[in-house]
TrEMBL record:
Cofactor: Mg(2+)
PROSITE patterns for this protein: AA_TRNA_LIGASE_II
Amino acids binding Mg(2+) 2: E428
Aminoacyl-transfer RNA synthetases class-II family profile domain ranges (all copies): 201-504
Species this chain originates from: Luethyella okanaganae
Cofactor: how bound: Binds 3 Mg(2+) ions per subunit.
Catalytic reaction list: tRNA(Lys) + L-lysine + ATP = L-lysyl-tRNA(Lys) + AMP + diphosphate
SUPFAM superfamilies: Class II aaRS and biotin synthetases, Nucleic acid-binding proteins
UniProt keyword annotations, A-Z: Aminoacyl-tRNA synthetase, ATP-binding, Cytoplasm, Ligase, Magnesium, Metal-binding, Nucleotide-binding, Protein biosynthesis
Encoding gene per record: lysS
Molecular function per GO: lysine-tRNA ligase activity
Protein name: Lysine--tRNA ligase
Chain residues that bind Mg(2+) 1: D421, E428
Enzyme Commission number(s) of this protein: 6.1.1.6
């Protein structure tokens, strides 16, 4: 079964036998290329080809060329073959560069001779990387082209490519991201936008005199968040270690040491569920500002996200992949968790409301709460009654104290802490604190967490003596925040988390 040169042949329904047959045909072409090579380093995979120009550079220079025009410019370019057509004495190929830019190659009998034209027809397949050199021209139809005088295969594609006309399913895109990047413009755009967003974060921090640091990914004590860790073992130290769930406790050590404005863009690992907004491995930003609080860190977070929107979309109004426009501009709303819950549910809950009263409403609404404490009931009820109605970017302020063991108590409201969660597009994008810096109260909070762990709460924090010792040397009043990089891209693009991660973990 020979390759069809006019379409991308394979679909998901084609058999493994068909794939194997096409692979065998291409392998035989590889053998002929190797045999014809003058020496090592040539054949189907030469060590280099004499590229002088890129496809996007030629498009930028000659895109307005009139039909059937010549330039006198000779260029050597390389790209992946996305389309092939033969009309006897003239063959056409569309070459694509890594950014998706395309140009036509015209391979004619008059320019390269009978033997070379026959080899082109025989050896070149869809998906191959080829080098062509010749004059830059415009075809009769006005297509920017290279009139080929010399060509060679730069890298032979042994497997046939997927059908370009049948879009890959999300599952296939995730599992075969390299094919997704070849075939789909949005996939390439996602990579570029992520890089632009991360670069913007660093520019904003640099402009505000923050210092970027690196903290350990392997830790003897997991902490900084309520989450289940991945557990491993160090042979060198013969001890149990944890992949970090957050860099928080190390970044706070840096603040104790005098780095008042510090941040890290890092990889975190949480041994929990995976869905449209969660991944076991994810990228995260955490930042701490000495002599700040949760209000100043909210201002910082808004600026970081709005600057990233400008970097990726040119303004505060971003256009998602489905065409929806979402406005990230202006000053974002700030609302109280308790007040908004009471307004939506018609209740009068306070931090002193008995658990039984909260549990009664939760049962009536069909809400189940694992390891029930006051704060978990309040947060679950808030998500049930309020979360779905948030349309604009919104800081939800002032959380229950018993679910926030690393946060300073509110300066004027008993029973809550100075914590906010930022909601965009209906999901939590970031969280911010007025940090708890009193080592005595922090120890008390850790002890309460240890009691929850004894009762079976797998997300409860452990008592971290090393961190407490650092706090005892004095940490200034501080505001801190954490934001998922993957979720930031979700807010900027409207895509699910598996689309914003280049190579997500899949089962």
């Amino acid at each position: 079964m020979a390759d069809d040169q006019t379409t991308w042949e394979l679909t998901a329904e084609e058999t493994a036998e068909a794939v194997s047959e096409q692979k065998a045909v291409r392998l035989s072409k590889r053998e002929r290329l190797v045999a014809a090579a003058a020496g090592p380093g040539g054949g189907a995979y030469p060590v280099s080809v004499p590229v002088t120009d890129t496809i996007p550079a030629l498009r930028a220079r000659f895109d307005n060329l009139e039909a059937d025009a010549t330039t006198g410019v000779v260029a050597g370019i390389a790209g992946r073959v996305m389309y092939l057509r033969s009309t006897g004495k003239l063959c056409f190929a569309t070459l694509q560069s890594g950014d998706g830019s395309r140009i036509q190659a015209m391979v004619s009998l008059a320019e390269i001779g009978e033997e070379s034209l026959a080899e082109w027809k025989d050896l070149v397949d869809l998906g191959d990387h080829v080098f062509v050199s010749g004059e830059v021209v415009s075809s009769r139809r006005g297509e920017l082209s290279v009139m080929v005088r010399e060509w060679r295969i730069a890298s032979k594609s042994i497997l046939p490519m997927p059908n370009l006309h049948n879009e890959l399913s999300e599952e296939n895109r995730v599992r075969n991201r390299y094919l997704d990047l070849i075939a789909r413009e949005q996939a390439r755009k996602n990579v570029v936008q992520r890089a632009q967003a991360v670069a913007s974060l660093r520019r904003t921090f640099t402009g505000l005199d923050f210092i970027e640091v690196e903290t350990p990914m392997l830790q003897v004590m997991h902490g900084g968040a309520s989450a289940r860790p991945f557990v491993t073992h160090s042979n060198a130290f013969d001890t149990e270690l944890f992949l970090r769930i957050a860099p928080e406790l190390y970044l706070k050590r840096a603040v104790v040491g005098g780095i008042d404005r510090v941040y890290e863009i890092n990889r975190n690992f949480r041994n929990e569920g995976a869905d449209s907004t969660h991944s076991p491995e994810f990228a995260m930003l955490e930042a701490y500002q000495g002599y700040g609080d949760y209000n100043s860190i909210a201002d910082l977070t808004q600026k970081l996200i709005q600057d990233a929107a400008v970097a990726t979309s040119g303004g505060h109004v971003v256009t998602w992949a489905d065409g929806t426009e979402y406005d990230l501009g202006g000053e974002w709303d700030r609302l109280s968790m308790y007040d908004s819950l009471n307004a939506a549910a018609g209740t009068g809950f306070t931090p002193e409301t008995p658990i039984a009263e909260l549990a009664e409403l939760a049962t009536r609404e069909g809400i189940e709460v694992d390891h029930p404490i006051h704060g978990k009931y309040v947060e679950e009820l808030w998500e049930h009654f309020v979360k779905g109605g948030l349309e604009r970017p919104t800081f939800v302020m002032d959380f229950p104290v018993d679910t926030s063991p690393l946060v300073r108590g509110h300066r004027s409201i008993a029973g809550v802490v100075e914590k906010w969660d930022l909601y965009i597009r209906g999901f939590e994008l970031a969280t911010g604190y007025s940090e708890l810096v009193d080592p005595v109260i922090q120890r008390e909070r850790f002890v309460e967490q240890a009691k929850l762990a004894v009762k079976g709460d797998p997300e409860a924090m452990r008592l971290d003596e090393e961190f407490l010792r650092a706090l005892e040397f004095g940490m200034p009043p501080t505001g801190g925040m954490g934001m998922g990089i993957d979720r930031l891209l979700m807010a900027l693009t409207g895509l699910g988390i598996r689309e914003t991660i280049l190579f997500p973990l899949v089962k």
